Amino acid sequence: MPETDLSIFNELYDIITERKENPSEDSYVCSLLNHRKGINKILEKVGEESIETILAVKSEDKEEIIYESSDLLFHLMVMFVAKGITLDEIATELKKRRK
């Protein structure tokens, strides 16, 4: 399998963290993190993107699957940042499961 640059995940996580620490009114991430509904708004988006990913898989359209999965991963990262969970913690859990 060809090696892929997965640094985009760390870059995106860092951008989301920066937006949490330095809010901007015109930032979508900030609007999620600072929404009056709190974490519930982020969870709504995770749920919505999960359903859209499932529907994309059912449609068997690879490009749509990639697009919707990217949205889901993005919103999961927003949730991680909101709850103080790092990508390293997720990676550690996944590594534990390999054993």
3D architecture notes:
By secondary structure, this protein is an all-alpha fold. The protein is 76% helix and 0% strand. It has five helices and no strands. The chain has helices at residues 7-21, 28-33, 39-59, 62-82, 87-98. It is globular, with a radius of gyration of 15 Å. The mean pLDDT is 92.
Radius of gyration: 15 Å
Oligomer: single chain
Model regions low in confidence, pLDDT < 50 over at least 5 residues: none
CATH topology: Helix Hairpins
Q: Approximately how much helix is present in the residues?
A: over 70%
Number of strands: 0
* Class based on secondary structure composition and strand pairing: mainly alpha
Name of the CATH architecture: Orthogonal Bundle
Global shape? globular
Task: Report how far apart the termini are.
Answer: 22 Å
Number of helices: 5
Run of helices and strands: HHHHH
What is the CATH superfamily classification? MazG-like
CATH class: Mainly Alpha
**Integer average pLDDT:** 92
- Please give the largest β-sheet: none
| Share of β-strand residues | under 5%
